[in-house]
Specification:
The protein is 54% helix and 10% strand. It has 91 residues and is mainly alpha-helical. It has one domain. Strands 1-2 form a two-stranded antiparallel ribbon. Helix 1 crosses helix 4. The longest helix is centred in the last third of the chain and has 17 residues.
Length: 91
């Protein structure tokens, strides 16, 4: 099995997260909730709009995993990378 920490997920050709990081987020979302569509598309490897992804990380993602410190740390880390890579497109 491939090491998920080595699989990178990109926005605009820039690596923003690893599959392992996003797996931490995905497993923290309760089964009775639907995760953010834009984050799901990002995890699936689609090239998503950085502003939309930032808004999803700052809103839906945090709410979905409230109380899971590891997932919240992943969201914070990914959001910071996104802001650094796309300073004019992210809030």
């Amino acid at each position: 099995m491939e090491d998920l920490a080595k699989i990178e997920l990109f926005v605009g050709g820039i690596p923003i997260a690893t599959m392992a990081e996003m797996q931490t987020y995905a497993y923290a979302v309760p089964e009775d909730q639907v995760g953010s569509a834009i984050i799901t598309r990002f995890i699936a490897g689609e090239d998503v709009d950085p502003g939309q992804l930032q808004r999803a990380l700052d809103g839906d993602a945090r709410a979905a995993v409230a109380g899971d410190d590891a997932a919240l740390e992943v969201i914070q880390t990914v959001a910071e990378r996104l802001r650094k890579a796309f300073p004019t497109e992210t809030p």
